[in-house]
Amino acid sequence: MRLQSRKRSEAISPVRRRIHRTIHGRLAAQQIGDPVVMKFFLPVIFAAFFSTNCFAAIIGDVSPQHGRPVAQINWIDETGRIRELSELVGFPVVLLPIYTRCQTACIANVDRLKRALADSSADQAQFRVLLFSFDATDTPATLARYRSRENIPLGWSVGTGSQANIDALLESIGFQVGKAGTEFAHANVVVFLDANLRIAKWIYGTDYSGRDVDVALKIAAGESDWIGQHSEWLYALLLFAGSLLCVALAYYVLQLSVLRRRRGEVAAN
Predict the structure, then answer these.
(1) pTM for the predicted model, two decimal places
(2) What is the DSSP string of 123-143?
(3) What is the pLDDT along the chain (269 residues), one digit of tens a residue?
């Protein structure tokens, strides 16, 4: 019996030694791997948080900002009359930046706005529309030809201003323009102002409907827009959550790599 027990013990011992060695190897790998992973993990967390805040701030600087008053500029219409933007106080305003020589995006922007307002249920006597040219070389005669060529509705205003007034208005609505040869590179955006000429809502692109315009005009008229008011924070939160997910995946992959490497070293010994 003692002989059989000794043989069984001798047979089990190598197995126990391997198990013991494996456990110790894993613990060692874990102990060694954790500081390595954390040295990588914590800086990336801080980098993700910092970059998210910076990116959100940049977005805020170059896009419309809810509630921001627009610059009170003077502008000139197609008759040559010098007007003040403050004349529009008391009505929601649909402001569409364009330039008259544009043969592509601006035409699409104006056509989309025409169709959307035609499909809208809003009373067109209760708001104003201003097509504002950011090309300082546009003259009243140029604006008049543009109105005729593009069949701009009579109830809409078409105007431009001096370069200083153009820059002031565009800066106040977060609209950037770049010169590309003799043309301009610009975003496609329509901005909705409230009755006090503060930014209430904006729509990018040309894929919007009469219903979208109805919603924007109601917000400009005073209805609550919680999502719009907090859109920058919501965007930053989503961006940060995405960054954390990427960091978590990187943490998992790095930890797995460390464990596999240590496991291989233990097996080799």
Answers:
(1) 0.65
(2) -GGGSEEEEEE--TT--HHHH
(3) 554 555 454 544 554 555 455 445 454 444 444 555 455 555 555 554 454 454 444 444 557 899 999 999 999 999 999 999 999 999 999 999 999 999 999 999 999 999 999 999 999 999 999 999 999 999 999 999 999 999 999 999 999 999 999 999 999 999 999 988 889 999 999 999 999 999 999 999 999 999 999 999 999 998 755 555 555 555 567 777 877 787 788 777 877 777 788 777 777 76
Domain span at 219: 74-224
For helices 210-220 and 105-119, angle between their N-to-C axes, nearest 10 degrees: 80
- Which CATH number covers residue 98? 3.40.30.10
**83 and 208 share one domain:** yes
Count of domains in the chain?
2
* In-domain check, residue 238: yes
